[in-house]
């Protein structure tokens, strides 16, 4: 019998074993998942929601988990985001993934999400098809030499740098033209102290026009995510270029982002970004 319930910190001991099977290809630089503490860290940061953590327990042992969050989208309504789904390799193909996915959808429905999105590696793509998700669009990895980020001017927009945040700011809990969840994920890594970076809000006449997060990934690169509100759409080139341009102070060679392919034109309108389609695939289901 498999029970689905909310996750607890003490489950991280069992989850370490689960991750060691499913995520051997992650964290390679740090040497893979070796400690329970690494697993615990993933269940507390700024992007983590207590309500969004479900585990599957069988014979007193946790054999799978799903982690979800939700954010607003000004055009299509509230979107549920599956941050990860991991089933112990010894328990796969016995419907535990399906059970956790359906339980997570029920939680998201109660949070009034109208659809749910997940980002899948090619190896798990067929699983999502079996549970009635469909592929929607593609993800692009884009990059630009820091020196080539244009300096666009605007007298209408006021730039506010956020300092001393402990929680995900409300303005970062949404996605419009950014890939769902990507702004929150990068913002959380900055807030959690994992990466050095900046969080920015852009205002015009006291109204929020957009937001941005940028962080130094290593000595050569910076990564950023920027988004605009509906009202901020006419200022997209300013908001995106200003956020990306903050990489200059770290003297990194390149600035990178991961965006929905549908919005590539918003970026190429103001600079010559290099782009390639990601091997990860966005999948979605209406609730
Ligand atoms: C992908 C994953 C979550 C599936 O969990 P699971 O418990 O094995 O899935 P289920 O048993 O509920 O499978 C439902 C259906 O999908 C099929 N399926 C599951 N994984 C599959 C895969 N990798 N490739 C093809 N089909 C797959 C099952 O055979 C089953 O088909 P059926 O209805 O015809 O019997 C699990 O394999 C896993 O943890 N993988 C590693 C981490 C990962 O990639 N997570 C997803 C990233 S978002």
Description:
There is one protein chain. With 287 residues, the protein is of the alpha+beta class. The chain folds into two domains: 2-135, Aminopeptidase; 139-278, Aminopeptidase. It is built from seven helices and 14 strands. It has helices at residues 12-22, 36-41, 96-110, 125-130, 182-191, 236-245, 264-268; strands at 2-6, 53-58, 61-71, 79-87, 115-120, 134-135, 139-145, 158-162, 196-204, 207-216, 221-228, 254-260, 274-277, 281-286. It has a seven-stranded mixed sheet with strand order 1-2-3-4-5-14-6. A seven-stranded mixed sheet has the order 8-9-10-11-12-7-13, with helices on both faces. The longest helix is centred in the middle third of the chain and has 15 residues, at 96-110. 37% of the residues are buried. The mean pLDDT is 96.
Number of DSSP-assigned strands: 14
Based on the structure given, which CATH architecture of the largest domain is correct? 3-Layer(aba) Sandwich
**Which overall shape is indicated by the principal axes computed on the Cα atoms?**
globular
**Average of per-residue pLDDT values:** 96
Cα radius of gyration in angstroms: 19 Å
- The fraction of residues assigned to DSSP E strands is 25-35%
CATH topology category name of the largest domain: Aminopeptidase
Secondary-structure element series: EHHEEEHEHEEEHEEEHEHEE
- Please report the first level of CATH classification, the CATH class of the largest domain: Alpha Beta
- What is the count of helical runs? 7
Counting helices, strands and paired strands, the structural category is alpha+beta
Helix proportion of residues, in percent?
Answer: 10-25%
The major pleated sheet works out as: 7 strands, mixed
Distance between the termini: 27 Å
Numbering strands along the chain, what is their spatial order in the largest sheet?
A: 1-2-3-4-5-14-6
Poorly predicted parts: none
CATH superfamily of the largest domain: Gcn5-related N-acetyltransferase (GNAT)
Q: Could you tell me which ligands this complex binds, including any ions or cofactors?
A: coenzyme A
**Number of discrete domains:** 2
